[in-house]
Amino acid sequence: MAKFLIHGSYTAQGAKGLIKEGGSGRKAAIEKALADVGGTLDSIYWAFGSDDLIMICDLPDTASGLAFAMAGGSSGSLKLTTTPLLSVEDVDAACKKAVTYRPAGA
To answer: Which residues neighbour 103 within 8 Å (Cβ) at sequence distance 6 or greater?
Structure first.
């Protein structure tokens, strides 16, 4: 499973929906949407400031992460930013790969 950090801000329409359903209702809807693509919710928080919602999700792959983000983003109720999270093992594996790169102009 891949981990994703998803954060976003509600539109006026989304804020009205949150007020109507409360946090528990929105959490249940998010868990259902994640399950539809084989994922689970690791943690969820609401905040105020530039982000209204912050989640960490486990999803089978990047295509599933994109499908979830597109479903939420296309709803018109919130604007999302999705960031794949890399494990220590991912970073270690990347550090061991040899890459030949020539900087521009070199």
So the answer is: none
Query: DSSP string spanning 75-97?
Result: TSSEEEEEEEE--HHHHHHHHTS
Q: Does the residue 100 lie in any domain?
A: no
Q: State which residues form the domain around 78.
A: 2-95
Let me know: does 37 contact 14? Beta carbons within 8 Å: no
Report the CATH number that the domain containing residue 10 is assigned in CATH.
3.30.70.1060
Residue 91 lies in a domain: yes
Instruction: Report pTM.
Output: 0.85
Cα–Cα separations (whole angstroms), residue 80 to 17, 69, 92, 100, 101: 16, 7, 29, 35, 33
Per-residue pLDDT of the chain (106 residues; tens, 9 = 90+): 899 999 999 999 999 999 999 999 999 999 999 999 999 999 999 999 899 999 999 999 999 999 999 998 899 899 999 999 999 999 999 999 999 999 999 8
